[in-house]
Amino acid sequence: MSNAFSDNIRQMQTLDLQLLQSFYGDLTDEELKEVLQRFYQEAKLYHQRLLKAIAMQNVMEVIRLSHSLKSMAAITGAEQYSTLCMWIERMMRSDELDDLMELSLYLSPLWQQLELSIQAKLGPEALA
Amino acid sequence: MVKGNNYFTEAGIMLKRSFNVLVVDDVVLMCDFLHGAVNRLANCRAIKALDGKTALDVLETETIDMLITDLEIKAPDGLELIKRIRSGTLPTAHDIPIIIFSGNAYLEQVQQGIAYDVNDFLVKPMSIDALGKKVSHFLVHDKFIQPAVHYEAMYRQEQKQPKAPEKGSSHKISASIVLNDPQKKDEYKPAQEDVEEAKTEEDFLSWPDNSTTGIYQLDRRLKKLAFDLSCFHNVFVKNCKLIALETERKRACGSIDYLNYIVKNLKKRERRLDFWQKFDLQLSKLNKLAAQLQSANLRHNSLILDLLKKLSYWWSQTISRPLVQRIDDGSEKTDE
């Protein structure tokens, strides 16, 4: 499972700003930063709640949170993280609980990479 | 972009007046995205709601010309909002354009959307330009929407059905479809030895009010199929042994085969083309499901659950179309 997932995201970027631009239309640098900032603030809370839900094995909550994170991340160009959430949601919907644990190991590292990419664009103070 | 009282959107479509568009999504980022997409259009004003309750408040107090909603929002969910609008239970016009904007496009949700005549089902993510074009298009191109009573009847019927419990494990399921009708229940005595056992369970399917086909044999076969599917469901939720599930599967598939056989014979006798055309369409859907059921791995709980849900949806579709209506003098006619 984890190999299949690694293969799947290998070609993807952590944060694809061109993709973000393609969804939002032409954004100025300021607007782009604002979108990233808002994504980070909201997605961080969802991410933390998702980790908690997985630890508690709260299936419905895992489905709900991964579903929301998937779309948020996709529209922001966070391809890898969005794909991970999509896999988690799909797995939960088909009751494959065993694979969830394996996949959830990717959650924190991918989030940290995403955080770094956003930080690189916004500057360290912006994420404080 | 403004010409007299007419307004043009970015897509070049003429808007003859100003429009209020309600956008609903529980994720702030997505709600803002929708808000931005609509507000970019000339003479369109977006109103945001982050949950179903706020959306309802807006629908009750504002004049709304279009709804764009996610499905998975805090109660009432997106589908519930759509149903309430279409069935005319809100002050908002029941025939406004409705766009579903969701991260998933599961067949069941799409089918529900179709039943309530949503204008489009858009899957996230989508570009702001593409979304803007869709909004402009549906604001000026009317779609035929049935009278509110049509959706109200569907909605009422759904409300009468027992609700499915939340998903916690693969076995906690329910897919009840139609109301029980005690009078009719007494009329039909299926030749099953486990009737008593089935009565103690909440039925998966049962024969609803005023849904007679008017053709006795067909009526009987459909009832028998409902009963067998109900038994299959009960055995499945009780987590019975595989051999019991296999027996129920054979029984349900046998019922479908027999229904096909009866239809073939009835067609020769009853030459009501309109009726058979509609019924054949339903039957072909059922036969596809039967083929899947026949070859399904019974250990695969999710798959079986999915099939049961599809069969229940088939059933609700079949009975929600009054193929035959009872007429006052006691006889019956076949027409829609």
UniProtKB/TrEMBL annotation, chain A:
Gene3D superfamilies: HPT domain. Keywords: Phosphoprotein, Two-component regulatory system. The modification Phosphohistidine is found at residue 67. Pfam families: Hpt. The keyword Phosphoprotein applies. The keyword Phosphoprotein applies. InterPro entries: HPT_dom_sf, Sig_transdc_His_kin_Hpt_dom. Residues 28-121 form the HPt domain. This is Hpt domain-containing protein. The lineage of its organism: Bacteria, Pseudomonadati, Pseudomonadota, Gammaproteobacteria, Alkalimonas.
Automatic annotation (TrEMBL), chain B:
The modification 4-aspartylphosphate is found at residue 70. Pfam families: Response_reg. Keywords: Phosphoprotein. PROSITE patterns: RESPONSE_REGULATORY. Residues 20-139 form the Response regulatory domain. This is Response regulator.
